[in-house]
């Protein structure tokens, strides 16, 4: 067996023999999943699979090794991310998910196309325009790419234009390279206090009144902070859904940058999330922010996909 204690928490494949050593033709079975226990004392390994935990005796193992993590498809990850950052008003057109929240943030005020709308494209677009017009908002699509490439072309043919976008980065929590920092502890609460809210500046602006409702509109979100003299100097927001933790609203006080606060905050965040069953982490950064992307990649993140916002040309 070629497994090591450092493989715990990672995806593995274990081949085991199903018949006794005296059988004329032994049969084998492969168990694929996350290694959650490797016990020399108990002479067993435990693998978490989609159908439950499988306990395997070391004596049964023919071969075992760590394998790369399963790559989640673009649309599947965006579906999970949509659970972590929601609109306050939502609707469906077939597989299109419509979201509105007073215009604050693109994700909470856009259409996420996760499948076929169930009607012709032009009929679906007419419904989108009417839905957003009723709410006093411009129609906007969030297009995961490359999954949304065909819809992107169809929108461009109809006068919709690229407005902005983001890079989505992912990592296995167990594989992150997070150095220890001699910094104040990371505290995580279920509600953002006024100081936390005052520290967060979405796209450089103070938060509108609707922001608190959007930020807390998730299943048990966490609001992380590193504080100095009681005041937040680094913050982020956390949501855990289906084994993934989304790290959003990351901000470090400009007066306290270049101290390693971002990595310190992330370490505390993923530790909290792992305690809630998260095994993977996703976050996003603007394509132009090469410094942030380089930092995240150094920690072990990889580019998963991009998404672009498409709206009607003025």
What sort of overall outline do the alpha carbons produce when their principal axes are compared? globular
Helix and strand sequence? EEEEEHEEEHEHEEHHEEEHEHE
- The chain-level mean pLDDT equals 92
What is the structural class?
Answer: alpha+beta
Beta-strand residue percentage: 35-45%
Strands ordered across the widest β-sheet: 9-16-10-15-14-13-12-11
Largest sheet: 8 strands, mixed
What percentage of residues falls in helices of 4 or more residues? 10-25%
Total strands: the figure is: 16
Number of helices: 7
Specify Rg, calculated over alpha carbons: 23 Å
Distance between the termini: 63 Å
What does this entry show, briefly?
The chain has 314 residues and is α+β, with helices and mostly antiparallel strands. It is built from seven helices and 16 strands.
Structural commentary:
By secondary structure, the chain is an alpha+beta fold. It contains seven helices and 16 strands. The chain has helices at 74-84, 121-134, 149-157, 194-199, 211-215, 261-274, 290-299, and strands spanning 11-17, 28-39, 44-49, 52-57, 61-66, 89-93, 96-100, 111-113, 140-145, 160-172, 186-189, 222-228, 231-241, 244-252, 280-285, 302-312. An eight-stranded mixed beta sheet has the order 9-16-10-15-14-13-12-11. Strand 12 and strand 13 (231-241) form a beta hairpin. It is globular and about 75 Å long. The model has no long low-confidence stretch (mean pLDDT 92).
